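ugh ok fine here u go
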Amino acid sequence: MIIWKGWGVLAILIPLICSLLAQLAFDSLSGDGFYKESDWAMPLVISLSSILVFVVGYKLNNKQGRILIDPENNEQVELKETHSMFWIPLQYWGIIVFVISAWMYVANLGLIYQ
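structure:
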């Protein structure tokens, strides 16, 4: 089960869509199966998509909220929509996706699992 709030689902959709589009591009230019067989193609695309996840998350989560004033005690309350997945803000998923892509690259080179 995936739990998200607002546009938090973009933490999965952006890398997935970028990966699918890159697979179509790489396989059409370099032959079928190049994207999956290459050591560097998939980690590169996922690391680039992590930048997009971070930027989109930063923009969405740093929007100005709506400030309301309670008439009884003049206390200010800010209503702000948050965008997260598994209670982690969307921009931090960009860092997590980047670490996953670095792990994939090192694993593909055979430095971790031999």
